[in-house]
Amino acid sequence: MASTLFKRLAKATTVSFGGQTKSTFGAIAAVTGGISYLYCYSSPNLAHLDEVKVEGSPKVALNPDKWVEFKLQDTARVSHNTHLFRFSFDPAAKLGLDIASCIITRAPIGQDAEGKTKYVVRPYTPISDPDSKGYFDLLIKVYPEGKMSQHFATLKSGDVVEVKGPIEKLRYSPNMKKHIGMIAGGTGHYSNASSN
């Protein structure tokens, strides 16, 4: 069996230089491969690495295809018109927000002429760590005429907000670009927000 392996390796690794065939490299490869083969399968004291079981993907709280209710855990006033909202979910799960993506929130604002619920829909980007488990934070500037921000301002602990996501803005992968330019923006006392 070992001799057959040597012959196959020697034939498979024959190298040609300047029209002449040299089997030196093939012989070396055959010997090395054969020794490795014999050592692996004949040594009684050989320690084999156990197969590492990779855990499945962690549980994700967000769903890009349907609205999911998240319960308001707590609020905090950051400035005269800006509030921090912490929403909770299963502590064993992570939010599932990708880099350069956002969530979409919706809130009922009445009914249309046919009696169907009308919604206001706004995108937001949580400011909490994407790997945080069991919660996410939104920092929202409350505008006097902002339909969604006014809705957030009326929420109390235990109330829910419907969320869908992640909504992808850019699929980023490591080293996809040599240079990346970034524009900083924010919500709160010192800057204006794009969503209200």
From TrEMBL:
<feature type="domain" description="FAD-binding FR-type">
    <location>
        <begin position="65"/>
        <end position="173"/>
    </location>
</feature>
<feature type="binding site">
    <location>
        <position position="141"/>
    </location>
    <ligand>
        <name>FAD</name>
    </ligand>
</feature>
<dbReference type="GO" id="GO:0005739">
    <property type="term" value="C:mitochondrion"/>
</dbReference>
<feature type="binding site">
    <location>
        <position position="147"/>
    </location>
    <ligand>
        <name>FAD</name>
    </ligand>
</feature>
<comment type="similarity">
    <text>Belongs to the flavoprotein pyridine nucleotide cytochrome reductase family.</text>
</comment>
<keyword id="KW-0496">Mitochondrion</keyword>
<feature type="binding site">
    <location>
        <position position="123"/>
    </location>
    <ligand>
        <name>FAD</name>
    </ligand>
</feature>
<feature type="binding site">
    <location>
        <position position="149"/>
    </location>
    <ligand>
        <name>FAD</name>
    </ligand>
</feature>
<protein>
    <recommendedName>
        <fullName>cytochrome-b5 reductase</fullName>
        <ecNumber>1.6.2.2</ecNumber>
    </recommendedName>
</protein>
<feature type="binding site">
    <location>
        <position position="124"/>
    </location>
    <ligand>
        <name>FAD</name>
    </ligand>
</feature>
<keyword id="KW-0285">Flavoprotein</keyword>
<feature type="binding site">
    <location>
        <position position="148"/>
    </location>
    <ligand>
        <name>FAD</name>
    </ligand>
</feature>
<dbReference type="Pfam" id="PF00970">
    <property type="entry name" value="FAD_binding_6"/>
</dbReference>
<dbReference type="InterPro" id="IPR017938">
    <property type="entry name" value="Riboflavin_synthase-like_b-brl"/>
</dbReference>
<keyword id="KW-0274">FAD</keyword>
<feature type="binding site">
    <location>
        <position position="122"/>
    </location>
    <ligand>
        <name>FAD</name>
    </ligand>
</feature>
<dbReference type="InterPro" id="IPR001834">
    <property type="entry name" value="CBR-like"/>
</dbReference>
<keyword id="KW-0520">NAD</keyword>
<dbReference type="InterPro" id="IPR008333">
    <property type="entry name" value="Cbr1-like_FAD-bd_dom"/>
</dbReference>
<dbReference type="GO" id="GO:0090524">
    <property type="term" value="F:cytochrome-b5 reductase activity, acting on NADH"/>
</dbReference>
<feature type="binding site">
    <location>
        <position position="139"/>
    </location>
    <ligand>
        <name>FAD</name>
    </ligand>
</feature>
<keyword id="KW-0560">Oxidoreductase</keyword>
<dbReference type="InterPro" id="IPR017927">
    <property type="entry name" value="FAD-bd_FR_type"/>
</dbReference>
